[in-house]
Amino acid sequence: QNNKRKIALSDLDIVNHVNNIKYLEWCLDIVAVDKILNQNIKSFDMNFKNELLLNEEVNIGNALTSDNQFFSISKNDKNCFSMIVSW
Fold it and tell me: What is the pTM of this model?
């Protein structure tokens, strides 16, 4: 599953980069609500690779296995962020 997002002013931190918590929020926004509410997150591992800036368009992808969900955020086919959530 892939989702697109354009970075808004409210996504930025004091130095005009996307605030770290936004990456997590964007990923969790594409998870089914019942999964978030009915399953406990055991752990998550985030890897920040490249900065994201105002008005850039990003693609948020994810894949699911029985125990883990994998997320990536990319711009122009370049991976900027990855995360693994263990359920």
Answer: 0.89
